[in-house]
């Protein structure tokens, strides 16, 4: 399997694991009668979540924002017959992605937010390189 495709699957799995963690917590509360099912309406939570669940949710949402971009680049590279370009840095890209998610889960302190921004910047630099190469601009 091409590294770019393996990373696409890994990125998708990471996104799924993040949502599964906080959703299973919520489902357990509902099934045990500790919280009503409508305690987590979009943008208007009526339930006092532990901070770790919010951090998992935000890490998941961040993956949802970035997964389609990576998938689109992989699709374009595949259609152009240039997957090897993506393959070269695919695992590095995912390393930044995984590190960003882990940092997101661990803490929201200023230091960790800065580290998260560094991890995101690493991903953006790689994505920009791929886009420029695929478009023939470099």
Automatic annotation (TrEMBL):
Family annotation (Pfam families): MAPEG
SUPFAM superfamilies: MAPEG domain-like
TM annotation in the entry: 6-25, 67-85, 105-132
Primary localization class, coarse: membrane
Signal sequence bounds: none
GO cellular component: membrane
This protein's record includes keyword Transcription regulation: no
Keywords carried by this UniProt record: Membrane, Transmembrane, Transmembrane helix
Locations listed in the record: Membrane
Protein name: MAPEG family protein
Provenance organism: Oceanococcus atlanticus
């Amino acid at each position: 399997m091409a590294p770019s495709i393996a990373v696409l699957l890994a990125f998708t799995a990471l996104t799924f694991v993040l949502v599964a963690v906080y959703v299973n917590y919520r489902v357990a509360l509902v099934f045990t009668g500790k919280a009503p099912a409508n305690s987590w309406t979009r943008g208007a939570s009526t339930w006092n979540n532990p901070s770790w669940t919010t951090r998992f949710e935000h890490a998941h949402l961040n993956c949802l924002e970035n997964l389609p971009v990576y998938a689109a680049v992989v699709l374009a590279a595949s259609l152009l017959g240039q997957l090897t370009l993506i393959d070269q840095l695919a695992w590095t890209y995912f390393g930044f992605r995984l590190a960003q998610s882990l940092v997101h889960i661990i803490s929201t302190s200023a230091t960790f937010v800065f580290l998260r921004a560094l991890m995101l910047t690493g991903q953006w630099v790689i994505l920009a390189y791929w886009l420029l190469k695929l478009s023939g601009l470099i």
